[in-house]
Amino acid sequence: VAAPVLLPGLGTAPHWQVVVARVEWEGEAPPAPGGPVAQSLLEEVLVDPEAGGPEPSDRIAVAHTGEEAVALVPLPAPADGAAAAPAGGTATGTASGARGDTGGDTAAGSGGAERAYGFEAGLHADALLAAVREPLFRGLDGDGRLTLGVSATVQSAEGLRGALEEARHARRVAAARPGRVCAAGHQELASHVLLLPFVPDDVRRAFTARLLDPLHDYDRRHRAELIPTLEAFLDCDGSWTRCAARLHLHVNTLRYRVGRIEQLTGRDLARLEDKVDFFLALRMS
What we know:
- It is built from eleven helices and five strands; from the N terminus they run E-H-E-E-H-H-H-E-H-E-H-H-H-H-H-H.
- It is an alpha+beta fold.
- The protein folds into two domains: 195 residues, Alpha-Beta Plaits, CATH 3.30.70; 86 residues, Arc Repressor Mutant, subunit A, CATH 1.10.10.2840.
- Strands 2-3-1-4-5 form a five-stranded mixed beta sheet.
- Helix 5 links the parallel strand 4 and strand 5.
- Helix 8 crosses helix 10 and helix 9 packs across helix 10.
- It is elongated and about 65 Å long.
- 35% of the residues are buried.
């Protein structure tokens, strides 16, 4: 797949992103093989001018391997005056505006590349999804589902293997979300967002039940709004004054509710470990 575009003749060190797509249908008998359909849809996505990626180019290579389609997308040359990384090398750092980055060769070579291009130059999962969700939703069969994963930018052929794995991991994150057209980017792979979809269902249920069921039961009996209070308290980073203002409560009322949460669960919301446990339980519930 990659051989025709490894040396695109741009006159600069080559930079690429990898995009992985997969189409799945509910039911035992899919109307068509997933790989070719995913390839066709991915080709349409990548040439859509609204997708927010590089200009359409005949250097983009898309192929399917089994049930998934893989695209190798060369990026345009850096703008004049941009500090490009050495050819074939890697740059370190995190691109401005990214929510995070992954470890490994792919991430190590991504930050400098995205700075050199200007952060907006590459493909971004959220912009791509916003541009193509509605037309793809209408174009899929009634029970079809498309998921996409987008890698970070890599600056050498040696980084392509890591970029492919990164895009595949991102697609799995997207697949764990509700909706018929979903996408995820490399920034999400350094977040708890990556881990939560792969927690086994029985572990998820046991963990959330142990922490949250006592609060749900108490709320049903007393309309105490302990769950909304807990969510707001964590969202305000444990700030009593900010949380009380958000909930339109007196600080003493907030302290009473938090104390009741701690009493019912046996946890201490002054401890970081317990805050993290509650945060994860709420995200998995």
